[in-house]
Amino acid sequence: MTAPKHNPHSNLAIAPDYQGSMLMIVAPSGAGKSSLVNALLQADPALCLSLSSTTRTPRPGELDGKDYRFVSKEVFIAERDQGHFLEYAEVHGNFYGTSRIWIEAQMKMGRDVVLEIDWQGAEQIQKIIPEVQWIFIFPPSLEALEERLRKRAQDDEATIQKRLAAAHIELQHAHEADFVVINDHFDQALEDLKHILAASRLRSGPVMACNPALLRRLGV
Ligand SMILES: Nc1ncnc2c1ncn2[C@@H]1O[C@H](COP(=O)(O)OP(=O)(O)OP(=O)(O)O)[C@@H](O)[C@H]1O
Ligand SMILES: Nc1nc2c(ncn2[C@@H]2O[C@H](COP(=O)(O)O)[C@@H](O)[C@H]2O)c(=O)[nH]1
């Protein structure tokens, strides 16, 4: 994995008065990010998922515009150079990036947003949007991680080996996260995520900004 030294196009003009919640879900491949995020989105229709662009080949069943925006490397690089991405990274040999315009629009509307990205992207977003909540998902063990990747049966052996090797690097960045969720029992992990989202919605800034009349009554 190669982290870009800096992203000269990532200046975000509209962050200061953002009153929504932004969650970044980060985990080694196979830990269960997508499964958990999909369940969280179903449970909480107010939450919006950031659709990443990638140069990776679609897996069987994956759809352009639903799972990812699948683009060629040439298109990705051209878009990156035009400032299309708020963050981007090379992960497992492919490029991935988050749309700057989409994030700006959600922030302007005060929407709650979830991003499924790697640690390199999380570090970049954290610098631009300090209010973001970084959630790291742990698998219960490396053995379980490997078993999940194999059982998913969507990657060839070389890809699985690449992802297991990258898992060690990804795990070294867990301490940078605000929250850790252990995805052993799926339902428990999902409950943990719901609680984190609920706590994020109770941050003092947004709550106070949304209740000026209450604050006046209380003399605050
Ligand atoms: N708690 C769990 N117990 C057992 N299996 C699980 C659990 N959570 C997810 N899985 C399974 O593990 C596999 C990997 O999950 P998923 O695709 O969500 O991982 P991911 O972190 O999004 O991986 P990637 O980064 O490669 O997209 C899937 O087959 C999923 O059904
Ligand atoms: N920095 C970013 N990382 C991203 C983004 N979208 C996905 N990812 C991460 O890539 C790996 C591999 O994903 P996969 O779908 O090929 O298994 C995983 O860690 C994702 O979280 C993004 O926009 N930016």
TrEMBL record:
Q: Which reaction does it catalyse?
A: GMP + ATP = GDP + ADP
Please name the GO terms that the record assigns under molecular function.
ATP binding; GMP kinase activity
User: Any idea which UniProt keywords this protein has?
Assistant: ATP-binding, Cytoplasm, Kinase, Nucleotide-binding, Transferase
Report the subcellular localization.
Cytoplasm
Classification via InterPro entries: GK/Ca_channel_bsu, Guanylate_kin-like_dom, Guanylate_kinase, Guanylate_kinase_CS, P-loop_NTPase
Coarse class of the protein's main subcellular location: cytoplasm
- Residues holding ATP: 27-34
Q: Enumerate the PROSITE patterns for this protein.
A: GUANYLATE_KINASE_1, GUANYLATE_KINASE_2
Task: One GO cellular component term, please give it.
Answer: cytosol
State its Enzyme Commission number(s): 2.7.4.8
Its domain of life reads Bacteria
Which positions fall inside the Guanylate kinase-like domain? 20-198
The free-text function statement in the UniProt record for this protein reads: Essential for recycling GMP and indirectly, cGMP.
Quote the NCBIfam families the UniProt record gives. Answer: guanyl_kin
Q: Which family does it belong to?
A: Belongs to the guanylate kinase family.
- Under what name is this protein listed? Guanylate kinase
